[in-house]
Design brief:
Blueprint lengths: L2 H16 L7 H12 L15 H10 L1 H18 L4 E7 L4 E5 L5 H7 L9 H4 L3 H8 L3 E4 L12 E8 L5 E9 L6 H26 L4 E5 L8 E5 L5 E4 L1 H7 L3 H4 L5 H5 L3 H21 L4 H8 L3 H10 L7
Antiparallel strand pairs: 1-2, 1-5, 3-4, 4-5, 6-7, 7-8
Length: about 325
C-alpha cells in the first residue's frame, strides 16, 4: 500500500476509535484493543513475527492429535476454495498456523504475506485479523481487506471459525485466507459456510475419538450454535458434551462429574425427548424380539446390564416377565 494509503488507513482507524463506536461495533472494539491495549501501530510495515524452528516444533507437537483429525477436512476445504487463490490454515489457540493447504503456484505470495506455518497471527501481535480476532471473540467471522488493523494486511480477506475440544475448550481456529483483491461478497459468504462446516466436522470427529466406547447423540439446536453432541455410556449416563451442547442444555463440567441421566438432559426439549424415546423403544423391542422375550439375553446383546434394561423397559412401558 502506498504511503498516503497507509496514512489514510491509520487515520480512519484512529477516528473510529475516538468516536466511541466500540460499544456498537465488534470491529471497532477489536481496533481499540489493538491500539489501546496491545499498543500496536496500524502503519507498522514489518511482516508477522515467526516462531523459531524449535518453538514451532513444540507448538505443533502440542496439537498433533488435532492436526491428524483435521487432515481430511483440510483437504476437502482446500479442494473447494483453493482454486480461488485461497489457502487453508489450521492454527493453534495462540494464533500460530500449524498446518496449511495451498496451491503451489500461490505459495510464494502467501509466504511473503506471512500466511504460513510458524507465523504469529494472534491479535496482540497482528492486531485485528481473522485468526487472532476469532480466537479472542470465540466466534466465526470474516476480516475483509481494510478491516484489518495493519495497513499492510489490507489486501487480505480472512474467514475463520474457532475450534473446541471434547470438553468445550478453545484449542485453535480454522481459516481460509485470500489475497485476491477482486474477491466478491457472495463468494466470501460461501467460504464462510464452508469454513464453519469444516470446523464442525473436525470438532465432531475429535469428540467421537474422545469417547470411543460411548453412544454419540446429536441434540437438535439452533444451527448458529454449532453441532451439539452428547456422549452416553451403557447406563445411559452423559459422560461428555460438546461446547454447543453445553451451552444449549446448560451442562457444566461439574454436572458431567456426577451421574447425569441422558433422559434428564434430553427432557429439556420435549420434541427431542419424544423422538429419542421412540427410537429407543424400537431398538429395545427388536432386541427383545430377537431374544424371544428373554430380558437377560436382550441385555447382553445390547451391551448393557439386566438392571439397566429393566429400568428402560419400565420407563418406556415395555413390560416383560422373562
Amino acid at each position: 500500500m502506498p504511503a498516503d494509503g497507509v496514512t489514510r488507513h491509520a487515520d480512519r482507524i484512529q477516528s473510529a476509535i475516538s468516536s466511541n463506536g466500540a460499544a456498537k461495533s465488534a470491529l471497532i472494539a477489536s481496533w481499540q484493543r489493538s491500539a489501546c491495549f496491545h499498543k500496536l501501530d496500524p502503519s507498522r510495515r514489518n511482516l508477522p513475527d515467526r516462531l523459531t524452528e524449535s518453538e514451532f516444533g513444540r507448538a505443533r507437537e502440542a496439537v498433533e492429535p488435532l492436526i491428524q483429525v483435521a487432515q481430511p477436512s483440510l483437504d476437502r476445504l482446500h479442494t473447494s476454495v483453493g482454486g480461488s487463490a485461497c489457502c487453508v490454515l489450521l492454527a493453534d489457540r495462540n494464533g500460530v498456523p500449524v498446518e496449511r493447504r495451498g496451491a503451489p503456484g500461490d505459495d510464494a505470495t502467501f509466504f511473503d504475506w506471512g500466511l504460513w506455518p510458524g507465523a504469529i497471527w494472534s491479535e496482540d501481535s497482528e492486531g485485528t485479523n481473522g485468526i487472532g480476532t476469532c480466537l479472542v471473540e470465540q466466534r466465526a467471522l470474516t476480516i475483509h481487506r481494510d478491516q484489518h488493523f495493519y495497513a499492510r494486511n489490507a489486501l487480505l480477506s480472512c474467514t475463520t471459525a474457532p475450534l473446541y475440544d471434547h470438553e468445550g475448550r478453545l484449542v485453535g481456529a480454522l481459516d481460509v485466507s485470500s489475497c485476491k483483491a477482486e474477491l466478491i461478497e457472495n463468494f466470501i459468504n460461501l467460504i464462510a459456510t464452508a469454513v464453519i462446516d469444516a470446523a464442525a466436522r473436525i470438532e465432531a470427529e475429535c469428540f467421537r475419538l474422545a469417547y470411543p466406547d460411548a453412544r454419540i447423540i446429536v441434540v437438535p439446536i439452533a444451527d448458529k450454535m454449532g453441532k451439539a453432541l452428547i456422549a452416553v455410556d451403557r447406563d445411559d449416563l452423559v459422560v461428555g458434551a460438546t461446547r454447543a451442547a453445553r451451552q444449549a442444555l446448560g451442562i457444566s463440567q461439574a454436572c458431567l462429574q456426577k451421574s447425569l441421566p441422558a433422559a434428564q438432559v434430553m427432557n429439556m426439549s420435549r420434541t427431542v425427548t419424544e423422538n429419542l424415546a421412540a427410537a429407543e423403544r424400537g431398538v429395545l423391542q427388536r432386541a427383545l424380539a430377537r431374544a424371544e422375550g428373554n430380558v437377560t439375553a436382550a441385555a447382553e446383546a445390547l451391551g448393557m446390564s439386566r438392571a439397566t434394561l429393566y429400568r428402560k423397559l419400565r420407563r418406556l412401558d415395555l413390560h416383560r416377565t422373562h
